[in-house]
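tmp note - DUF1844 domain-containing protein
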Amino acid sequence: MTPAVPEASLTALMHLLTEQALLSMGVPHPMVKEAPPANPVVARFYIDLLSVLKEKTETSRTVAETAQMEELLYQLRMRVMDLKPAAETPVDPKP
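out:
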């Protein structure tokens, strides 16, 4: 049995980007037992993509889509602020 594929829509795209951002923050997916390691840089990339989507669809969203977009962006931005900076950012020990 194959799972139902949702209809392609702006809402579906918003949720896809949100899911990727959450996974990048180390939030486990319901279908996966173990949480992935957090990667704040990648999480911010997905949040930025969602922001670009918001900007580019400014005049074509419904009121409900706009409210949902605002709420998703707010929640993601608040959550990513709690993450520690990415460990892969090199720090030059020499002045």
